[in-house]
Design goal:
The structure is a homodimer. The first copy, chain A, is built from 10 helices and 13 strands. The first copy, chain A, is an alpha+beta fold. Chain A folds into 2 domains: 146 residues, 60s Ribosomal Protein L30, Chain: A; 171 residues, PurM-like C-terminal domain (Phosphoribosyl-aminoimidazole Synthetase, Chain A, domain 2). In chain A, helix 2 packs parallel to helix 3 and helix 2 packs parallel to helix 6. In chain A, 56% of the residues are buried. Chains A and B meet through helix 1, strand 3, strand 4, helix 3 and strand 5 of A and helix 1, strand 3, strand 4, helix 3 and strand 5 of B.
């Protein structure tokens, strides 16, 4: 009897186990393991965010589909997106890279240039890290430290009954881009760019915070269904999502249609869209929408509402039929 | 022509290349890539340290020789040691773990308990991270954020001609422990503990800073010869090391002797001792030594002196013969 394997309890089961193994002594830790980033309240009153994410070759990316520059960009973007999800601004990053010994110097340079490009674009300096040999492919772990104003701090917990549920941009594009890359047609530039060069919604998070205090926020890294579930579980609420209101790009629709697949599935469980999902008082929506669109060009869509029926997350189709929405996002293991 | 492989330029060649690929925009970055930790000067005047390190299964550790708890401890200790090397105190850590899908939940728990044990012992809270599948063995990347008083901040640059070169504790023990483990005798408890459960010199760094301002400091992770070279290169000085003054534990001597190997080689290039190597004005040595020993129980040894002959690092044997000391520490790739 050697005990349970990790894959039997899944990612969120494992996170609960890990929480049980670590001790938190410092009063400064406002929020530890379990959100997009940890929140630290410094003695000066500043709030700091710390987050880290890993991309593993063969699990999260393949060199067949992406340049090293794009892999670097995406690794950086995924981390910056976690800072955006907390309402913050990224400041400094450290990068741990493991790679096979036969890797080319110029490939490593391309990787760092891609990371640096997205980091510097959003005001984040790469200040250190570690390089080591791997036994297989590449592993890229990035940790980002950011800051956030107390009044802009957004977590997964805090959604209120009656809140409007909003998303930035459009969903399902990354999944559509990946499918398009696998077909090697590469004709759908928009979707492919969404998959390979996602833009973290730092500016949008800032613009949202300029106008309103969101009640809960998360970035859509695993898929909408999964992220709505996170917010509802942490906020102890339910949610009703209107399928017809979920924003999807025309290219995403076209790719799904051509492949005979459900575009709704792309949006609900495609993952890696790195859009923001947030809830706020419905009377604030118009002001947020116009301010964000004016300042960033990114549309805001209302896709549903927070309900008081804890554990009941439903999706409503165009005919008004309700169905339970299970978290069917990207399964990490 | 696909370009040079990484192993052709080595770790330090690669770090130089990486430096050329990243941009630093923020005035807050006092020190970026290239020391044990990055140094950030916050608007409040606080100095922050950020460091990260990776341990790769098969490269840095084997489960054959260590429990998961010990692997976790050592991964944490290696990072905390980098904070000690800057004169700082660790505060918060994030952990990225990649593991094979068949790994047991209880093994992951043991790993985190080991990490948490060393972190909490030195005042550092594990506040987040990421867990992902790997394609091979485990990869553990930890990033630690710490703080340091401006007057205690120590870097590799700053050694002055005439400085005494000092080390904490003793050297070569980790290498001796590894050799002992390979023989499966496991009779040398001290050396094996040095290899599997190294103690980061956080308290010693603090005690040193209580009494004197060090001019340069680094932790001995790759081996004494390599670290002396780092300090001299960054400080543009030379150094003279007295072989007979290098502190070595009796068990380390015994293991080397039994194996017919040079104990001096263990001390110079064994690596993973995680002691502190520092330089300071010779008149400060007595006060530092007695304060550190009184407060931590750890001895301080003077092993050499900083010289003005840049690029000339020599080791002097008991008969006064000088030999050039090349950086022969652990080669990462």
């Amino acid at each position: 009897m050697r005990g349970m394997e990790i894959r039997e309890i899944g990612e969120f089961g494992l996170i609960e186990k890990i929480k049980g193994c670590v001790t938190t002594q410092k009063e400064s830790v406002v929020l530890g393991i379990g959100d997009d980033a940890a929140v630290i309240k410094e003695t000066s009153g500043n709030y700091w965010l710390i987050t880290s994410d890993t991309l593993v070759e063969g699990v999260h990316f393949r060199q067949e589909f992406a340049t090293l520059w794009q892999i670097g960009w995406k690794a950086g973007a995924a981390n910056l997106s976690d800072i955006a999800a907390m309402g913050g601004e990224p400041r400094w990053a450290v990068v741990c890279l493991s790679f096979p010994g036969h890797m080319r110097v110029r490939d490593v340079e391309d990787l760092y240039r891609g990371m640096d490009r997205v980091c510097s674009k959003f005001g984040c300096d790469i200040v250190g890290g570690d390089t080591t040999l791997s036994m297989g492919g590449m592993t890229i772990s990035i940790a980002v430290v950011g800051r956030v104003d107390e009044e802009r701090l957004a977590t997964r917990r805090g959604a209120k009954v009656g809140d409007a549920i909003c998303v930035t941009g459009d969903l399902g594009g990354s999944k559509a881009g990946l499918e398009s890359l696998k077909e090697k047609g590469q004709t759908y530039g928009y979707a492919i760019r969404r998959h390979l060069e996602p833009v973290p919604r730092i500016h949008e998070a800032k613009a949202i915070g300029d106008v309103a205090r969101v009640h809960a926020m998360i970035d859509i890294s695993d898929g909408l269904s999964s992220e709505v579930n996170h917010i509802c579980r942490e906020s102890r609420t339910g949610a009703r999502i209107f399928a017809a209101s979920i924003p999807v790009h025309e290219d995403t629709r076209e790719i799904a249609r051509r492949r005979g697949e459900s575009v709704l599935d792309y949006a609900l469980s495609g993952g890696e869209d790195f859009e923001l999902l947030f809830t706020l008082a419905p009377e604030k929506v118009d002001a947020v929408r116009s301010h964000v669109e004016k300042n960033t060009g990114t549309p805001i869509s209302v896709i549903g509402e927070i309900t008081d029926d804890e554990k009941m997350i439903v999706i409503v189709d165009e005919d008004g039929n309700e169905e339970k929405l299970f978290p069917l996002g990207y399964q990490h293991f």
